Amino acid sequence: MGRKGGKEGSRRLPWLPWVGVGLVALGSLGALLTGSQLWLVVILVLGAACCGVATGQLLAELGKARRERALLDARVVQSHKLAALGELSAGIAHEINNPLAIIGREAELMEHLVGSALAGAQDGPRAELQESLREVSRQVERCKEITRNLLSFARKMEPVFQKVDLNRLVEDMVRLVERETQGKGIQILREYHQGLEPIRTDPPGLRQVVLNLLNNARQATEQGGTITVRTKAVLGGGVEMEVQDTGCGIPREHLARIFDPFFTTKAHGKGTGLGLSICHGIVSRLGGRIGVRSQVGKGSCFTVWLPVEPGSGGNA
Amino acid sequence: MKETSKTRVLLVDDEERFLSTTGRLLGVRGFQVGTAASAPEALEELEQNPYDVVVLDIRMPGMSGIEALAEIKRRRPDVEVLMLTGHASVDAAVEIMRLGGADYLLKPCSMDELVDKIQAALERGKTKKGA
Q1: Residues 190-209 of A with CB under 8 A from B
Q2: Distance between terminal CA atoms of chain A?
Q3: Most B CBs within 10 Å, among A96, A102, A180, A209, to test the B interface
Q4: What pLDDT is recorded for position A128?
């Protein structure tokens, strides 16, 4: 800003010496011309000066408009780039995951072939080859996780608000996860508030949040444990959705950082630390809040508060 | 390992190499495997031969996997259909469940994951028939 002001000041200053020169010239002309001629010269000089000032101002305004236009163009280009990035990410994830699937499958086939073709070979090299092929499969898994999170991160688009039955949306996600938990002896309990008022929110974003919380709960819960999913109306306004598990819980020192990007308590290569930070970002964009209560050895409870209308408050 | 020798699986994917290797490895695990490189080819194969489970890629040229799922469930509601997708979309997953798909798998998936999902789909089919 200071730089800009200095520039404008230096552009105005060169006029001052010209005013002095004008006055001196006027004095000299006064001795040569008659009174009416002198007035004509004064009017002409003043007219020319006014034209000069007006032209200067016009040029300055034009320059300012040009700079504003360039800034606006840059913003439009940036927003188009972001939208294109979102679309591109879905395409890239698909295009990369397909060859990755083939690499992974070929590694598994080679592992099988090594096992049968080198049955008589020395144990050392055969085991080494098999371990090397298993490493290929592990790295394929790692790439899969990266493309999945890249996609989620690039989906930071403006939410499209629609009227949503929260219970139905949550139940759709519970059914998806229940397919995984049934075979692992984990029970999912539903405690839905009946007659919950519909809310205006972005369904794909909210689905992603619910699914992420349920998947985290599933991963944290041991066989025989339970996951409880609750919905309720909040007295001060808005609705709440809770996912409570009987899993391992989160240590107190990790709780403050749990929504930070790239913070993870999972083993190396098992989690990217983006899941909860993505949830936090989505819930914020929906005008809501996300929080967690946890006790080590007893489990965790994630609570998502959402307004009934975007932008409407609540004292939850 | 559970009994797989009588289970007939139809694999549908436009990636030829993925189709042949996955088919071969499912064969090693004891499944009877048929393959199709497109949705119309899969529908034709289902008309001609009996299958218990169809493993269907979502993104294929021409008729998509989602359209094929609806058509398979209309013609053969008894066949369990597992969907394969290159990228995770929660909306697509909900759509799959609404159309009667048994489950979905994200590419790349290991053979263990695929076999687990096939067996879970078969169990689900048996439970439905028993109900």
Answers
A1: 203-204, 207-208
A2: 43
A3: A102
A4: 84
Nearest to residue A161, comparing CAs of A41, A311, A2? A311
CB contact under 8 A, A101 and B18: yes
- Chain B hits for A209, Cβ within 8 Å: none
pLDDT band at A13 (very low <50, low <70, confident <90, very high): low
Q: What is the pTM of this model?
A: 0.53
Question: Closest Cα of chain A to B96: distance in Å?
Answer: 10
pLDDT tens sequence across A139-167: 888 887 777 766 666 555 557 788 899 99
Q: Is the ipTM of this complex over 0.90?
A: no
**Least trusted range by pLDDT, from A91-100, A129-138, A187-196, B103-112:** A91-100
- For position B80, what pLDDT does the model report? 94
Residue type, A220: A
Sequential DSSP letters for A267-316: PTTT--S-HHHHHHHHHHHTT-EEEEEEETTTEEEEEEEE-SSTT-----
Taking contacts as CB-CB distances below 8 angstroms, the residues of chain A near B109 are 101, 104
Distances (CA, A) of B87 to A92, A95, A141: 9, 9, 14
Identify the three-state secondary structure at position A173: helix
Q: Does A112 contact chain B (CB < 8 Å)? A: yes
Tokens of A202: 């972005």
CB < 8 Å to A101, chain B: 15, 18, 86, 107-109
Residue A137 near residue A108, CB atoms below 8 Å: yes
Query: Which residue of chain A comes nearest to B15, CA vs CA?
Result: A98
**Smallest CA–CA separation between B116 and chain A, in Å?**
10
pLDDT at A241 over 80: yes
Residue A259 half-sphere exposure toward CB, CA atoms < 13 A:
18
Give the per-residue pLDDT at A268. 46
- Indicate the helix (H) or strand (E) that contains A71: helix A35-117
